[in-house]
Structures
1.
Amino acid sequence: MRLVQPDSVADATSALGNGSRALAGGTELVPLLRSKLVEADTLVDVRAVVPRGVQGTTIGAGTTLAELEVDPEIPAVLRESCSLAASPQLRSMGTIGGNLLQATRCWYWRLQYPCFLHGGNVCHARQGEHREHAIFGNERCASAHPSDPAAALLALGARLRTDRRDLPLAELYRLPTEDDRSTTTLEPGELILELEVPQPEASTYLKAMDRARWAFPLVGVAAARFADGVRLALAGVAPIPWVLGSPAALDSATPLPGTAYKVDLARPLVRRALEAVA
Ligand SMILES: Cc1cc2nc3c(=O)[nH]c(=O)nc-3n(C[C@H](O)[C@H](O)[C@H](O)COP(=O)(O)OP(=O)(O)OC[C@H]3O[C@@H](n4cnc5c(N)ncnc54)[C@H](O)[C@@H]3O)c2cc1C
Ligand code: SF4
């Protein structure tokens, strides 16, 4: 395997595609390479070219979660979602860009079962073990998106700037379909460069997890209040980060037998989050 260390965005993007992958902190990519869930002949180290740090409402995609969790300039919901993610060591290496692009933790997918998301015809989790899986958008793939910061950024109405477009974060994600099993709209070789994050009047992130530290969200609730109202988004409840139109939208959840408890977890978390930002 080759390691390429470009010194411009143009050099990085021309080195990407055709069997190469962008490498930032490597906390997600390296385990995926080791378990052969991702194949690459070249790694393109993008740390020198993807912006890092916070400038007003602009956050470089190369900023680590550890840097974000202590930055007083960024909204509380994003700070809190970062500080509740992973472990201190992972947050010191892991970048916000890489976090938004992490793959599902579904154990069937990680064990390479030939499931729907891998291109097959069935979702093994629907029939099998699925206590950590989805309650929304789970008709074909019932995986639960693991990113806490993605829910925070959705509630904030963040936008992304890549090397080729500017888009709302919500448009980065898509539910997998028969024709296309991917869960993001990122094109091959496209690099996320920056996030534009509006400042809310108040915001918070609440997370239910199996233990108090170093656990993925069973349910994460992000709430952000702006002049025109409060926006809610959830982590750990659908194959992609999920916008919750209102607390009543929880009534339209489609839980599996083993995930019905997540609806009961989400209701009080949503209520508490709304009280916190009122
Ligand atoms: C044990 C463990 C527990 C965790 N717990 C949590 C948790 O509770 N909550 C949570 O939110 N996260 C959790 N994470 C995820 C962790 O936060 C991510 O692994 C990390 O943020 C990924 O960032 P990275 O820079 O290391 O990405 P990398 O591993 O370098 O890259 C990840 C992916 O993103 C691509 N990529 C990276 N940067 C860019 C870019 N700028 N443009 C385009 N593509 C890019 C890479 O090609 C790769 O496909 C956990 C991870 C582990 C291993
Ligand atoms: S939940 Fe998705 S990733 Fe998991 S087995 Fe089903 S189709 Fe595969």
2.
Amino acid sequence: MSVPQPPEPIPGARLLFSLDPAVSHLNHGSFGAVPIAVQRAQQRLRDEMEANPLRFFTQGLIDRIAHTRRHLAGFLGADPDGSALVGNTTTGVAVVLQSIGLRPGDEVLSTDHGYGAVSLAIQRECRRTGAVSRVLPIPLAATDEQVVQVVRAGLRPGRTRLLVVDQLTSATAKLFPTAAIVGVAREHGIPVLVDAAHAPGMLATTVASIGADFWVGNLHKWAYAPRGTALLAVAPQWRDKIEPLVVSWEQESGFPARIEWQATLDYTSWLAAPAGLFTLRSLGVDRVRAHNAALAAYGQRVVGDALGVPPADLPDPGGPGVSLRLIPLPAGTAATIDAARALQTRIGERLAAEVAVMSWNGRGWLRLTGQVYNTADEYERLAGRLPALLVQR
Ligand SMILES: Cc1ncc(COP(=O)(O)O)c(C=O)c1O
């Protein structure tokens, strides 16, 4: 089988970012990268804030936040007034967990593809309330139908108070059939929280089409927003129950203002987020999605080939537009989280390539992303140098 051709580069796209040109940035997934125009938009807002802090915070800021939220929600296909801006997905998850009224004996169900910090949040909330956390194992190669079957069999009506499922998983770059999962849970009246940290900007699926009780996604990864920008969408029946982690002056205003107003924070990342969407739209949303997915698939194949992984053993995330791809590492490599972190650092230092190294269920994986600032030669260079690094101590 021949290696697929890489996509046509997007001319000049690298110059939109302030990324160190000496490094291949092949891990957009972890922390994103903010285009220079968006950094400038945020700086202009900070300049305005510092010119007259009192006026900035007291004259119209709440309306500006609401306006921004409606803009971002509209882009994501979420209900503009049924959504709240939050700082990040982790915060949105914590808001939901502490708002649903978990009680002793209740169960929070999640999968073994879940994000580590989200699992820790579930565990802590369960310890605090006397609920229990149960984790469903789902094979990496499971089809959508198999995933739905596993979830269906795993639900315990009457006990399961919340199902937490990722739209696109971080450790395993797997796209879950979230709308179907929500449908199955709804048959039993079980609410679903979709962790969509990677979805905004990358995936075309609208929030409304998933129909989850709760959905939270970051705009600071694939939608080019400044870090600290996420949207939490909440179904109507939950909006009165949703409580902020920190009570502030908008508490009596109800959802979403009580969630969004978090006292004296720097809200400029939210206000500048539409500039990220402007960059994405200027490049062409569909063009960016297609480019990034094709480039990630290309990178997966060339690096996989270099490591001797047969194409059939390269996980396919199961959907178009997915710009995260996994390559299995040789058995015994990055088998633990600490070993994965150490290898990731070593690849960064020795090969000038920033990648994600994941340890999932005792197995090590390299995770590569594609972005408009990447070019095919960056993956080829990594493919040329990685095998030697993996055999070095
Ligand atoms: C699936 C998933 N959930 C949650 C998060 C947490 O996002 P944040 O650090 O912005 O809260 C991430 C971050 O990469 C993620 O991949």
